[in-house]
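Fold it.
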Amino acid sequence: MNVEAFLLCDAATDQHGKLNVLGAFDNIFFKQMPARQPSCSVATRIRFDKIEEGLHSFRIHIINQDGVNIGPKLEGKIDTRPAPNLDSVVTNVILNIQGLEFKQKGKYRIDLAVDGQIQASLPLWVSQVPEQP
């Protein structure tokens, strides 16, 4: 298994196996805390080799500095079945989020686990915009 893409972005879609991503980022700036991000997406593209064919569980969590999940979590199953003439198959997984709330500034992270093992992790820095004199 290979995680080919794992991104926090403004928006993402899957069109017949093609992953479309708009505006990948790892920093968010707000005027005051707590704050809400109106919308964003976590886009994931995972390739499974033919030998890994079958059912795989996955989950995506957004975690604060205290290790607490702060957002919607996405959990599910991926059924990987490459075509007979192919040696791998790719799956796109997208988590669309509305109104994600950040209670404090600091470092957050987004984790991707497949079959109970963390396969990728993204940092996310939440900052307050300095006031202008």
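The mean pLDDT is 94.
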